[in-house]
Amino acid sequence: METSTVTRFVSHFIGGEFLEARNGRTADIYDPAHGTVQARLPLADEATVDQAVQAALRAYPAWQQTPLGARAEVLFSFRELVRANATRLAELVSSEHGKVVSDAGGEVTRALEVIDFACSLPHFMKGEYSEGVSRSIDTFSVRQPLGVCAGITPFNFPLMVPVWMYAIAIATGNTFVLKPSERDPSVSMLMAELWSKAGLPDGVFNIVHGDKIAVDALLHHPDVAAISFVGSTPIARYVYETAAKTGKRVQALGGAKNHLVVMPDADLDAAADALVSAAFGSAGQRCMAISASVSVGDVAEPLMDAIAQRVKALRVGPGSDAKTDMGPVVCATARDRVVSYIDAGVTSGAALVIDGRTCRVPGYEGGFFVGPTLFDQVTPKMSIYTDEIFGPVLVNLRAQSLDEALALINANPYGNGTAIFTRSGAAARRFQRDVQVGMVGVNVPIPVPVGFYSFGGWKASLFGDLHIYGEDGFRFYTRGKVITSRWDEQNAGINLGFPVHK
Ligand code: NAD
After folding, report:
1. Which atom of ligand 1 has the smallest separation from the CA of 455?
2. Which listed residue, 24, 25, 80, 378, has the most CB atoms within 10 A of its CB?
């Protein structure tokens, strides 16, 4: 399709209004299954970002002072609306991202978990009170919102990741400006509609579309108090450093290379099923995807056979087809990048067990498809291991012992998620204690924490102190204040000494 024939245009959402802004720079939104342009979106300039921040700033005093119960009511209504629109949301995610609709449905469910948690905001906004810390003096603490918070999000979970941020930010009394991924922004527009229907006042939730220019405008805006970022490691590092330099609170979650260790005593079928699901679900475009298996001892040969057998049965096709197991990757650049890594793996001497480069989907010849790919005999210096490929490529490294497997994982610069498959409690316990990774699975391949825990990696997978959503999310979007008050009939008199407690 020629881009000039595109009729759907995605808007910004500022102060409760949809603003088309067709005149400035724009970007194309693709249908990854067909490889065609299906819509276009505006790329915000500094003035548009400022407009959104000002709308959020104006809405802040009233929203901050809205009683906790009234804020919770909006959250509960929002939750019901998201639930009622779950299918529509999942289809919208699938149409721009390419993942299968059922997988997108899982994303909606995990987002709902975080909204459920945000509904308990009155509990988390509670402070502490100490009566009588000194004569007639009480001390108490409260947590207050920060002001205007901004979120910058990746393409791979266009619904769930923004919800991780704004559900908690808004629940805690902040107002929010979202800059979603420019590849699949439409689901955020539907979420904006649902917020409005739920009774959220205009200006509390805003969306600006854009690229580096919009991101930089948010990072440098003096009225933005906090930045949450999720995306690749180089941009996460840049966002963290820039936002810190401009005096903002910041959490920046980055990329990953997640390992799954298969011990010789593991249930082989369970391990092979888990590896195939976790490596090729969403075409490997999950920050918690398993992209490296580490087979310990003599398990490598049977494990490779079991995985290969399963991979050959996977159906690759459009995400809208209920029979599809794995959809396309998000864009042509991503497909070409994945293919170039497979080429590099072959050149570097890894054993290519299954080659996804030849994958063709009849009727979808223009689609951004790469088939599931499996490499064995991979070594730590090969680029298929050192780099985050973010596509359907699983590489297997062989280790002689759990110690060797742990050393390999701990030497890796990333530390998002990892897992071990074993029947030994001692091996599992050792692994969960010593592995330098933020989220660990024991016989669970993608250990994404439930909504009432927090999500976050270590090392180059997260820059900042606090993880996202859960209790850490409440802490990130609020700051503490401690009040010391004296109520007494008697004057305390003059005392130039430093106050002591008696
Ligand atoms: P990306 O880093 O390319 O983009 C993320 C966001 O940053 C987008 O909104 C994009 O517009 C913006 N951006 C891109 N280039 C920029 C630049 N030069 N300056 C300022 N902003 C810029 O990431 P992506 O391709 O959309 O998403 C995939 C990546 O996200 C993978 O690396 C994946 O591991 C990571 N991810 C991490 C987590 C996590 O929780 N750690 C979760 C999801 C995705």
Report:
1. 40
2. 378
Residues 244 and 321 in one domain: no
Supply the pTM of this predicted model.
Answer: 0.97
- Is 502 within the bounds of a domain? no
Residue 262 phi, psi dihedral angles, 5° rounding? -110, 115
Residue 137 inside a domain? The answer is: yes
Q: What CATH number did the domain enclosing 195 receive?
A: 3.40.605.10
Looking at the fold, whether 145 and 178 belong to one and the same domain comes out as: yes
Q: What residues are annotated to the active site?
A: 287
How many Å lie between the centroid of ligand 1 and the Cα of residue 61? 31
Q: Is residue 313 part of a domain?
A: yes
Please give the structure tokens belonging to residue 119.
């509904």
| Binned average pLDDT, 10 residues per bin, the chain of 502 residues | 71 96 91 97 97 98 98 98 98 98 98 97 95 95 98 98 98 98 98 98 98 98 98 98 97 98 98 98 98 98 98 98 98 98 98 97 98 98 98 98 98 98 98 98 96 97 97 97 95 88 68
437 and 410 inside one domain: yes
**For residues 300 and 305, what is the distance between their CA atoms, to the nearest angstrom?**
9
Strand-strand pairing, 36-42 and 26-31: antiparallel
Tokens, residue 369: 């498809």
Half-sphere exposure in the Cβ direction for 63 (13 Å, CA): 28
Within-domain flag for 497: no
Q: How far is CA 338 from the centre of its chain?
A: 21
Count of structural domains, the chain: 2
Contacts of 424 (CB under 8 A, 6+ apart): 263, 265
What CA–CA distance (Å, rounded) separates 331 from 372? Answer: 16
User: What's the CATH number where 356 sits?
Assistant: 3.40.309.10
Distance 388 CA to ligand 1 centre (A): 12
Based on the domain organization, do 46 and 137 belong to the same domain? yes
Give me the amino acid identity at 72.
A
19 & 75 share domain: yes
Is residue 388 within 8 A of residue 286, CB to CB? The reply is no
**Short-list 250, 366, 364, 374, CA closest to 312:** 374
Residues 93 and 220 in one domain: yes
> Dihedral sign, CA of 308, 384, 155, 227?
positive
User: What residues flank ligand 1, with Cβ below 6 Å?
Assistant: 152-157, 161, 179, 181-182, 211-212, 215, 230-232, 235, 253-256, 287, 388, 390, 416, 457, 461
Q: Residue ranges of the alpha helices (H) in 129-211?
A: 160-171, 186-197
Q: Which domain holds residue 419?
A: 258-442
Same domain, 340 and 248: no
Structural tokens at position 21: 């802004």
Between CA 237 and CA 232 the distance in angstroms is 9
Q: CA separation (Å) from 370 to 12, 212, 359, 373, 443? A: 33, 28, 6, 8, 28
